[in-house]
Amino acid sequence: MSGVIIDGQAVAASLREQTRAVVAQMRSDGRDVHLSAVMVGDPASGTIYARSQEARCREVGIAYTLHALPEAATEDEIVATIGRLNTDPRVTGILLNLPLPPHIDTPAVHYHIDPYKDVEGVNPANIGLLFYDAPIIAPCTALAVMEILRRIHCTPRGMNAVVVGLGAIAGRPISLFLQHELATVTACHKETRNLAEHTRLADLLIVAAGEPRLIGAEHVKPGAVVIDVGINRIDDGRGNQTIVGDVRFEEVKEIASAITPVPGGVGPVTVATLLRSAADAARNQLRPRRLTT
User: Fold this and answer.
1) Can you name the residues that pair with 163 across neighbouring β-strands?
2) Which of 85, 103, 223, 240 is deepest in the core (most CB within 10 A)?
3) What is the pLDDT of residues 51-70, one digit of tens each?
4) How many CA atoms lie within 13 A of 209 on its CB side?
5) Is the dihedral of CA 128, 134, 139, 144 positive or negative?
6) CATH placement of domain 140-269
C-alpha cells in the first residue's frame, strides 16, 4: 500500500495565511515589513526569479525592493550595498540571491548581512546560534522540513533519523534541529560507504544530497517517513528538462508511511517559510538585540 503523499502546497498555503495575518497586524501597529533582495548580474532566470519573489511578497503584504548589481560588481561593492540596507530602518529583511559570480566569496558576503535582517539564516552568527538551539533566524529549508514534520504529527523524539547530505543550509542544519528534538541522528552523504546499510535503519529519512534519484526502495525501511529535499533538473531523454528529487519517488512511495513529492513537497514550504522569516525578522528588530559579533 502506498504511503501518504505529503502536500507541500497545502502546508505552504497555510503558512502564507499565517504570515499575512502577522504582517497585517504589524502594519496596523505602524510597522511595515520590507524585504530587500540583492541580485548580482542580470541573467534571464534571475530576473524571472526576482519577479516571482516580488509577487509572493505582495500576496502576504510584504513590500519588496530589488537591488540589481552588474555581473562585474566587486565584493566590496556588494558588501557596501548590504551595508546600506543594514542601516536603513525601512528595510526589515535582506535576501541575497544566489548564485553569485565565481569571483565573489559567497560566505564572506553572507557574513556582512545583519543577523537580524538575515531572512535566510545564512549569516555565520545565525548558523552558529543554531548549534545552541537559539538562532535569531534559521535556514529556511531546515525550518521547512521541521514544519512539515509538525504538520504530519511526526515527532522526532526517540526516532532513528538519517540525514543524507552535509549542505550548510539543509543537511547540517536539519541534523542539528533533529538532535535538539532528541532524535538519534546519523549524518550520511552520497559518498557514504554502504549507504543503504545506514538508511534502512531510519524511522525518519531526510535526503538533501543534491544527487538525482540517489535513494531507492532498497535504501528505505518499510514504514519510514521520507522527506526529499532535493531539487534537480535533468534531461528526460527527449530533450526536455524535468525536475526530480534525490529519491526515486515511484519506488519509495510504495513502502514509506509518508513521503514528500518533487516538485510540490519541500520546495513550496521553503518559499512560504522565507516569507514567515521575513515577518519574524521585522518583529525581532522591535526587541532588544542579542550580541552577535
Assistant:
1) 187, 206
2) 85
3) 889 999 999 999 999 999 99
4) 20
5) positive
6) 3.40.50.720
